[in-house]
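Re: that backbone. Tokens:
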């Protein structure tokens, strides 16, 4: 059995100011299959998943392109077409294959392409013909389109947010693909559109119970091959943006449709309570001054680079400084210019530096402050979701009660390692500000006295009516309070 695998993806925030280009992919991961075969680099997570299901089966794995970029603004046409071309060339060079496993994030929007993954799958299908199984793994923060469903045999999303089950999901899909190639299953995909836009937190009720129920159904019902909740990515202005439930059965479309509808309506019923209450800038500042639990971890969620934001908003940090907080630290603030100045001045130097606030009016003005350069470093790195994320040249500057970790690359703060590598002991701090919406949580929870979620105005604002959508299909809650009623349906 010969299986071709490839990875291509990013999460496009159509409201973010920084375009995603080929450099953005090279900054994170961009390797061709040749590098993997020659041993110059590790196989991608999808390739690893196939390696792990291969143990007792004779499978030849052909590793194609592996390219991922940090979430950002719209992908340039040149970058998208180049990477798509590389993936298709790798597939053509693989010759005759028995199956295809693709790891696509599912929320890439490129200049001229509102549905990159639908476009990729249509072209992959044109090469493989109708009979070769094509299986796909997506991040739940994706846009599931008709075209994707039409050209893929089986699609599934990670279940957990934070995404702690990426590897598990890839292995499950690799295993399913092999069984489909063996002729043991005839997958049928059934979808229910919840007609809503939401942020689903799978560690919290009511979503936690729904995820647990899905896992039980997958384990106990023989004809259910996979169930996914497509959360959707609210800051991607795609016609397909929104929450859906996708059930794959073994040739049982009616059962699949029934289960997808049941779960989808359950999510819709809880639409008001499935989101998290985020604190306004003023509320977060007030709460930070009042709270006694230490360290207090505050997520600066509307400036999370993981959702495409610049990570250079100083709104929250400035507000806390103005109230006189002390013994605080923040990571990571994207400011290559300020890093260069700090490196030039050297450790111990004291000088005025302008920090952040350089890319979008949504993020507010920069912070001008007299600062001490505490540390300069060539790189810091974090491992998260199977990838190594590098900051590039970085610096720690101190002033106004804060130690600020500045970076050259735009990187989400995933773990306390972000602070430790910068020479800051996070457990000794009173306040830690992290540029992250949710992924920080698993690693910070054990040391946090308490966690707050703040939402200063920014690129990832959850008050969606502040953003200029053009393409998203209607009716869709919360834009339309009664999306089923107005369409003549009933929830
Ligand atoms: Zn995600």
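Recovered sequence:
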């Amino acid at each position: 059995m010969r299986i071709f695998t490839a990875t291509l993806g990013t999460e496009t925030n159509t409201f973010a100011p920084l375009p995603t280009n080929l450099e953005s992919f090279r900054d994170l991961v961009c390797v061709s299959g040749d590098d993997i075969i020659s041993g110059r680099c590790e196989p991608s997570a999808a390739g690893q998943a196939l390696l792990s299901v291969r143990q007792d089966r004779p499978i030849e794995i052909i590793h194609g392109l592996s390219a991922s970029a940090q979430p950002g603004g719209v992908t340039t046409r040149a970058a998208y077409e180049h990477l798509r071309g590389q993936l298709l060339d790798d597939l053509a060079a693989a010759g005759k294959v028995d199956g295809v496993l693709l790891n696509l994030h599912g929320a890439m929007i490129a200049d001229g392409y509102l549905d990159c993954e639908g476009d990729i799958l249509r072209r992959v299908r044109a090469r493989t013909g109708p009979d070769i199984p094509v299986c796909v793994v997506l991040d739940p923060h994706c846009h599931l389109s008709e075209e994707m469903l039409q050209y893929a045999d089986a699609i599934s999303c990670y279940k957990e947010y934070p995404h702690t089950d990426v590897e598990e999901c890839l292995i499950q899909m690799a295993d399913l693909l092999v069984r489909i190639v063996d002729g043991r299953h005839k997958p049928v995909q059934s979808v229910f559109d919840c007609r809503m836009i939401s942020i689903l937190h799978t560690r919290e009720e009511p979503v936690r119970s729904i995820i647990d129920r899905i896992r039980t159904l997958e384990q106990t019902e023989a004809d259910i091959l996979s169930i996914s909740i497509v959360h959707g990515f609210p800051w991607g202005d795609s016609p397909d943006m929104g929450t859906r439930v996708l059930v794959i059965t073994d040739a049982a479309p009616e059962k699949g449709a029934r289960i997808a509808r049941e779960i989808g309506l359950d999510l819709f019923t809880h639409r008001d309570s499935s989101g998290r209450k985020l604190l306004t800038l003023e509320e977060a500042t007030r709460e930070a001054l009042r709270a006694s639990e230490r360290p207090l971890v505050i997520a600066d969620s509307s400036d999370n680079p993981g959702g495409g934001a610049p990570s250079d908003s100083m709104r929250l940090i400035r507000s806390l400084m103005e109230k006189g907080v002390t013994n605080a630290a923040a990571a990571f603030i994207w400011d290559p210019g300020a890093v260069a100045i700090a490196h030039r001045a050297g450790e111990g130097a004291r000088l005025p530096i302008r920090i952040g606030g350089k890319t979008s009016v949504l993020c507010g003005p920069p912070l001008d402050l007299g600062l001490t350069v505490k540390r300069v470093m060539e790189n810091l790195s974090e491992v998260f979701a199977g990838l190594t994320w590098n900051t590039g040249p970085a610096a720690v500057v101190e002033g106004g009660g804060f130690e600020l970790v500045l970076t050259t690359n735009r990187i989400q703060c995933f773990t306390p390692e972000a602070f430790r590598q910068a020479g800051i002991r996070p457990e000794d701090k009173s306040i830690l500000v992290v540029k992250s919406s949710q992924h920080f949580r698993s690693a910070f929870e054990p040391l946090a006295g308490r966690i707050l979620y703040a939402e200063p105005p920014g690129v990832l604002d959850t008050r969606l009516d502040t953003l200029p959508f053009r393409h998203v299909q209607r009716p869709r809650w919360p834009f339309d309070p009664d999306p089923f009623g107005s369409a003549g349906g009933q929830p």
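The longest strand covers residues 367-377. The first helix runs from residue 22 to 28.
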